[in-house]
Amino acid sequence: MIRISWKGIAGALGLGAVCAGALFTAEPAMAQDYPTKPVTLVVGFPPGGSTDVVARILAGHMTDTLGQPVVVENRAGAGGSVAIAHVANSDPDGYTVGVSGVGTSILIAALGKDPGFSMDDDLDVVGIMGTLGLLIAGRTDLEPKTLPDLIEYAKANPGDIAYGTSGVGTPGHLAMEYLAATAGIDVLHIPYKGNTPLMNDVLGGHVDVAMLTTPGAAEQVRAKGIMPYAVSSVGRSSLMPEVPTVSESGFEGYSAQLWNLMVVPTGTPDEIQSSLSAALNAAMEDPEVLESYGKQGLAPTLTTPAEASAFLAAERAKWQGVIKDAGIATE
Amino acid sequence: MLDNILMGFATAATLTNLSYCFAGVFLGTLIGVLPGLGSLAAISLLLPVTFYLEPTTALITLGGIYYGAEYGGSIASILLNLPGTPSAAVTCLDGNPMAKQGRAGVALFITAIASFVGGSLGIVALMAFGPAIAKIGLGFGPEDYFALMLLGLVAAVTVGTGSVIRSLIMVVLGLLLGTVGTDVTSGDFRYTFGFLELRDGVSLVGLAMGLFGIAEVASSITGSNARSVKHKVDMRSMLPTRKDMRATGGPILRGSSIGGFLGALPGAGTVIAAFLSYAVELRVARDRSIFGKGAIQGIAGPESANNAAAQTAFIPTLTIGIPGSATMSIMLGALMIHGISPGPLLMTDHPEVFWGLIASFWIGNLFLLVLNIPLIGIWVRVLQFPYKFIYPVVIALICIGVFSMRTSVFDVGIVVIFGALGYLMQRVGYSPATLILGFVLGPMLEENLRRAMLLARGDAIRILTDPLAGSVLALSALLLIWAMIGGVRNIIRKQRNTSDVVGEA
Questions:
Q1: B334 band by pLDDT with thresholds 50, 70 and 90
Q2: What is the four-CA torsion angle of B49, B55, B61, B62, rounded to 10 degrees?
Q3: Helix or strand holding residue A127 (H, E)
Q4: Contact B297/B247 with Cβ under 8 angstroms?
Q5: Where are the alpha helices (DSSP H) in chain A?
Q6: For chain A, where do the domains classified as CATH 3.40.190.10 start and end?
Q7: pLDDT tens string B43-64
Q8: How far apart are CA B433 and CA B171, in angstroms?
Q9: How is domain A133-249 classified at the CATH fold level?
Q10: How far apart are CA A316 and CA A261, in angstroms?
Q11: What protein family is recorded (chain A) (predicted)?
Q12: Residues of B in contact with A56 (CB under 8 A)
């Protein structure tokens, strides 16, 4: 018969803690020395995608600042959730850093689905990795030629306009539902599996309107394959300065942006978070990075961890409002 | 046009680009041969390396890896019944029986020729009609894709050389497995059992490597599939007979056309091209009983099809900026990192990238031919290796390959589960090839049908009366009737010569 002694267990645990503490102090890897080994930047999408490109541009520069390689690791799956859940479960030592977009940071949870982690409890936000607008574009033979015309047409012909997005619950879907709710129009949502088939169908004229990401969309506009209506960002896109924003087109104050946050597991020492934040901001001021950002249509951002957290809270409040106002079903 | 082609060759024929092209196809072949490591995994891993190269050189290297792997995938299919890539699964059906008959050299030789011809015809199509084909591709709406996928499924049922009932069971199992994941139309999760990793569905590579790779290794170890192929390989035993050559001309041309066309449609890809080509060869063959037992037509057609498709997949990618497959989107990502935005203006803005790359394809295909004909003798010697040394390496490679796709241990678990299922299937004589096709086509079929129905506002007549979709649907119906008539005829023939009842596979 084995008698379990709680005292014994507590003692063992205590001894373990002391040993762990001793190991910890013995290790040279203290927060002020950070980093002493390569830092992994976890991306929730496959290589070559827009999130991956952002991560790789920044990783290159952060490697120079931190003096240790910043390695991009792709853990694609579940709209980015697999990667961010992995970061949330990693040691809070600053060597596993995540790139979390609008979906994983806000939308998946706001739509009542389980992302596999809690943005508030499991993760700290280090900074914003730039913002990007969406292009609202139509097939070239669509009758209305401007956004106000399109809205008027949709009002006169409820349910007639079919708009495509890269999926249910993606920023593009919510951005159009937000616009539809604001303008009081009825449009039909056609979800696609990512940007590729969506682009194919709007170029081929199979779907009327599409919510597209730059810079791919900007190239199609330049080749006159699609008709641009407006960009959803706060300011105009550096890639298509001639295209007005939605806000300029009669919906003042409207904005729907894509962004990525740099996140670390909760409990990561403040010194480490500051080092990462400083390296991220240094990259955002580097001329080469700025040039790459310009080519991708990305707007650079300079933020402290506190500012980035406030940004997240404001964005969350906004999207939760949109989901409620537009009456998008949550589970 | 001629100027452009010349400029392309001038770009591709610099010493740097030639060496990178050679390195690309060589590496690609190796990666293709290794089961589990496909071009997608290889290109993802090597993408960062290409950041330090000129954009054209970077693309030439990645492109070489891509079609090199497509070629190499068939080598392991023939020798060890282990498809290096999912599209090489078809090549197992007849390639491995040929190897067991001691004709591995011939099979590899025909594969090299078929791949070269298919690849070259694909490149000609890309050069001559690229933009025009891309326009036709854009004209394909959801209803047309649906009809095409249905045609593929009908063809799949007739692919199995055994009983139609068994193929049907496998296709349906594939369709069911294909429903796992996030439903595109509603955004709901289906059969994910709370696993984040299943929200994107079961991993295709994991499934294919389990069903084919692990299952094959398992049944070989247990000795049910004894390997004692030991024979000397000289140049003569490698060369196909005149009869072989005559039998392959038609399949290669048909395969190249099928592959060339399907490759140009974004999303259709090399897997479907290979299967459809096999189905067509099975239909047009005078003697269908040789299929599955080492019919040379059964490797010539699919091999030329998947290599033609590998080349024409660059049509939508390069001429309109729509990646034809997951591998293609990584290549576009490589361009984006170099500050070149892929789109319809790539051809005019960066002609050296476009034409240089296309010229390198042809050089690369030539390299593949020159590289592989002498290597056949070496490859065949793999068969003389004791199997106990081969299988641990195979299992390790499969695990590494599948893990590296998404840095996912979960997917390695998928391999183990489907390895067990595949072993059981092999013991009771069910072919995993049709399961894979059902798995690939099912989700695309459903997604496109539901999208077409949404766009038609629920009016199915609009899909049936669409000229293109309607014709393809009619073609599927015809194929089904043809298969049924053939089946009835077989039964009648069987009853006539009762002595031959057991012989029917």
A1: confident
A2: 80
A3: strand A123-139
A4: yes
A5: 6-26, 50-66, 81-88, 102, 108-110, 119-122, 147-156, 171-183, 195-203, 216-222, 270-284, 287-296, 305-325
A6: 133-249
A7: 877 887 887 888 899 999 999 9
A8: 9
A9: D-Maltodextrin-Binding Protein; domain 2 (3.40.190)
A10: 13
A11: Belongs to the UPF0065 (bug) family.
A12: 48, 51, 337
Q: Amino acid identity, residue A31? A: A
Q: What is the 3-state secondary structure (H, E, C) of A224-292?
A: CCEEEEEECCCCCCCCCCCCCECHHHCCCCCCCEEEEEEEEECCCCHHHHHHHHHHHHHHHCCHHHHHH
Pairing of strands A123-139, A188-191: unpaired
Which pTM was predicted? Answer: 0.85
Residues of B in contact with A60 (CB under 8 A): 51
B326/A46 touch (CB, cutoff 8 Å), yes or no: yes
- Tell me the per-residue pLDDT of B472-494, one tens digit each, with 9 for 90 and over: 999 889 888 877 787 788 778 87
- Kindly indicate the confidence band of residue B271, based on its pLDDT and cuts at 50, 70 and 90: confident
Query: Look-up: residue for tokens 């001629």?
Result: B2
pLDDT reported for residue B333: 82
Closest chain B residue to the Cα of A169, Cα to Cα: B187
Chain A contacts of B184, Cβ < 8 Å?
Answer: 167-168, 191-193
3-state SS assignment for residue B190:
strand
What is the reported pLDDT for B474? Answer: 93
What's the pLDDT band for B213 if we cut at 50, 70, 90?
A: confident
- Among candidates A56, A77, A223 on the partner chain, residue whose Cβ is nearest the Cβ of B197: A77
pLDDT of residue B223: 65
Is residue A307 pLDDT above 90, yes or no?
A: yes
Contact residues on chain B for A167, CB-CB shorter than 8 A = 184, 187
A38-132+257-325 topology per CATH: D-Maltodextrin-Binding Protein; domain 2 (3.40.190)
pLDDT of residue A146: 95
Q: Are B156 and B439 in contact (CB under 8 A)?
A: no
Q: Which of B190, B455, B459, B466 to mutate to test the interface with A (most CBs of A within 10 A)?
A: B455
Alpha carbon distance B324, B318 (integer Å): 9
pLDDT at A1 over 50: no
ipTM score assigned to the predicted complex: 0.83
Query: CATH 3.40.190.150 residue ranges in chain A?
Result: 38-132+257-325
Nearest CB partner across the interface for A204, out of B139, B339, B344: B139
Contact state of A203 with B320 under an 8 Å Cβ cutoff: yes
pLDDT in tens, B18-32: 999 999 999 988 888
pLDDT score recorded for residue B191: 93
Yes or no, beta carbons of B345 and A219 under 8 Å apart: yes
Contact A48 B329 (CB under 8 A): yes
Residue B308 to residue B254: CA distance in whole angstroms: 11
Partner residue opposite A220 with nearest CB, options B48, B343, B451: B343
Does residue B342 contact residue B317 with C-beta atoms inside 8 Å? Answer: yes
User: B342-389, pLDDT tens digit by residue?
Assistant: 888 888 888 888 999 999 999 999 999 888 888 888 888 777 778 788
Helix, strand, or coil (residue A193): coil
Best probe of the A interface among B138, B148, B444, by most A CBs < 10 A, is B138
Q: A203 to chain B: nearest residue by CA?
A: B138
The one-letter amino acid at A172: G
What pLDDT is attached to residue A164?
Answer: 96
Closest approach of B320 to chain A, Cα-based (Å): 8
Chain A residue with minimum CA distance to B324: A196
Residue A2 pLDDT: 45
